Amino acid sequence: MTEDELKKFPQHVFGQAFTTLKCEGPVYLPWLEKRLKGSGGLILTRRIEDLWELHPSFDIVVNCSGLGSRQLAGDPKIFPVRGQVLKVQAPWVKHFIRDGSGLTYIYPGISNVTLGGTRQKGDWNLSPDAEISKGILSRCCALEPSLHGACDIREKVGLRPTRPGVRLEKELLAQGSRRLPVVHHYGHGSGGIAMHWGTALEAARLVSECAQALRTPAPKSKL
């Protein structure tokens, strides 16, 4: 940022300004769902406690259960990173602002402005914390004083499914003579939107490998 641009942020000595893309889940996810259905996909909603419940109805399972993989895949490495944000009406805010640590940010969107945030490792609490909300608003107003005039303030809480690295691999589950090919695809943390298309392409490739293996007859032993 130039010296003139930095005058707006007197508590900072360095900054970067750039244009980027912002993807909004409430709009993007329904578009993906429509795309899936348009390609012949069928969406079923049900609760399962074990991946084997899907056998033999499904030949291959892609496990995208996020934090649910602690139970479904027995993965102790995945944990929540709690995030709390505020959604406010401030239509005059046109540019995003994010401080160096990434814990304080202002992201204008289609219908509201998102103010954040928190990174609370291992915290499963989905209820908003009033003190945290007060701190978020205070920090964001320090970056953008006009937010003192924001209205319709709503609190939102989510859990980021985090692990040391994304789990993207095949696993062949076995129970006696039964086999269930699984492609694990979870643990993106806060980077789901950024990484999802690339990791989904790799997951699809792994599914193709599983399908090919199912189509290939097992070799018969000769005596």
Give structural attributes.
223 residues; alpha+beta; D-Amino Acid Oxidase, Chain A, domain 2; 8-stranded mixed beta sheet; 5 helices; 8 strands; 28% strand; flavoprotein; FAD; D-amino_acid_oxidase_CS; D-aspartate oxidase; cytoplasm
- What about the largest sheet? 8 strands, mixed
Residue runs with pLDDT of under 50 for 5 or more positions:
none
Structural class: alpha+beta
For this structure, what is the CATH homologous superfamily of the domain at 79-161? D-Amino Acid Oxidase, subunit A, domain 2
Number of strands: 8
Describe the structure.
Its main location: cytoplasm. This protein has a domain at 79-161: D-Amino Acid Oxidase, Chain A, domain 2, CATH 3.30.9. It has five helices and eight strands. It has helices spanning 3-6, 25-38, 69-72, 130-143, 192-215, and strands at residues 61-63, 79-89, 97-98, 105-108, 113-116, 120-121, 151-175, 178-188. Strands 1, 2, 3, 4, 5, 6, 7 and 8 form an eight-stranded mixed beta sheet that branches. It starts with a helix and ends in an 8-residue tail after the last helix.
Q: What is this structure's SSE topology?
A:
Layout lengths: L2 H4 L18 H14 L22 E3 L5 H4 L6 E11 L7 E2 L6 E4 L4 E4 L3 E2 L8 H14 L7 E25 L2 E11 L3 H24 L8
Parallel strand pairs: 1-8
Antiparallel strand pairs: 2-5, 2-6, 2-7, 3-4, 4-5, 7-8
Catalytic activity: D-glutamate + O2 + H2O = 2-oxoglutarate + H2O2 + NH4(+); D-aspartate + O2 + H2O = oxaloacetate + H2O2 + NH4(+)
GO cellular component, one term: cytosol
Main location: cytoplasm
